[in-house]
Design a protein that fits this description.
By secondary structure, this protein is of the alpha/beta class. It folds into two domains: 215 residues, Rossmann fold; 92 residues, Magnesium chelatase subunit I, C-Terminal domain (Helicase, Ruva Protein, domain 3, Orthogonal Bundle), CATH 1.10.8. Helices cover 46% and strands 15% of the residues. It has 15 helices and eleven strands. It has a five-stranded parallel beta sheet. Strands 3-4 form a two-stranded antiparallel sheet. Strand 6 and strand 7 form a beta hairpin. The protein starts with a helix and ends in a 5-residue tail after the last helix. The relative contact order is 0.15.
């Protein structure tokens, strides 16, 4: 798939998503970046900002098989991965596969379940396999997890373990719509063009097949990243481990994620090469959920995005 074909496909995907999702341009781009690089994304926002609707729409547009798990405090790991159940008629155990056996998994409100249940996704996200009763079963190569969560301050939420957060390439923060966008939503709600109705009625079409998605991912490997920029990218990630306000910095997996995200952002912008601005743009969504600030700096009101921006200002950009 050439860069021109890639641009055309992305334009079609944006158009179809726009039939349902009003505004949220940066959010849609970040979601496409996670999918096209073969990674997973964490979507955070207050209830009602269309987190679940966004993920359902993406699955439809990209022609992927879709499953949804509603995470609740009583959810068990076997409810996600599956288990063996004894079949009385056959007098043997049969495997009942869980919802994780799909191409596109929506882990809805993942931080409402305890850590034991959240960890059921670790192997699937990292290795795209699932182990059930010592049997290791493969998942589709297009397997992607989109996990939605409410802000951690909300009642009844559990913080995600660090190992879990590190497996998400991006953290996508969905904010409340602007007045014009919310007005458009209100107007459409009174017609047949209400977002949920459009999706349910089949008005949103798939623009690519799962095989096309794999070809598109392979195309991203051809995006050029100069050695000087690669060094700059590595220095940005390493600086998070040395900053005085950071208790836990980003690890090597963050370096890989920032590299892939910068390439994908360049492709979304219609270029076959990465610029310093691509790295700067993707630094916050890639690094934000991986950093933990020291308590004394949090008390002063310092935020993780502010720390990342300071780091970007301190490191010299190669020409």
């Amino acid at each position: 798939m050439s860069i021109e074909k890639l641009k055309e496909t992305l334009a079609q995907a944006r158009h179809e998503i726009g039939k349902v999702i009003i505004g949220q341009t940066e959010v849609v781009e970040s979601a496409l970046i996670a999918i096209f690089t073969g990674n997973h994304a964490l979507v955070e926002g207050v209830p009602g900002v269309a987190k679940t609707l966004l993920v359902r729409t993406l699955a439809k547009v990209l022609g992927c098989e879709f499953s949804r798990v509603q995470f609740t405090p009583d959810l068990m790991p076997a409810d996600i991965t599956g288990t063996h159940v004894f079949n009385l008629q056959r007098n043997e155990f049969s495997l009942i596969k869980g919802p994780v056996f799909t191409s596109f998994l929506l882990a809805d409100e993942i931080n409402r379940a305890p850590a034991k249940t959240q960890s059921a996704l670790l192997q699937a996200m990292q290795e795209r396999v699932v182990t059930i009763d010592r049997d290791t079963l493969p998942l589709p190569p297009t397997f992607t997890v989109f996990a939605t969560q409410n802000p951690i301050e909300y009642e009844g939420t559990y913080p995600l373990p660090e190992a879990q957060k590190d497996r998400f390439m991006l953290k996508i923060t969905m904010k409340a719509p602007a007045r014009a966008e919310e007005l458009m939503l209100a107007q459409r709600t009174m017609t047949r063009e209400a977002p949920e109705a459009m999706l349910a009625a089949g008005e949103v079409k798939a623009v690519i097949s799962p095989q096309d998605l794999l070809d598109l991912r392979a195309q991203l490997a051809g995006i050029v990243l100069r050695d000087e920029l690669l060094g700059y990218l590595v220095d940005v990630v390493r600086a998070t481990r040395e900053n005085e306000s950071v208790l836990v910095g980003a690890g090597p997996r963050a370096t890989q994620s920032l590299l892939m995200a910068s390439r994908a952002y360049a492709a979304l912008s219609g270029r076959d090469f990465v610029t310093p601005d691509d790295i700067k743009t993707m630094a916050v969504p890639v690094l934000e959920h991986r950093l933990i600030l020291r308590p004394e700096f949090e008390i002063e009101g310092l935020t993780v995005p502010e720390v990342i921006q300071r780091i970007l200002q301190q490191i010299a950009v190669p020409r």
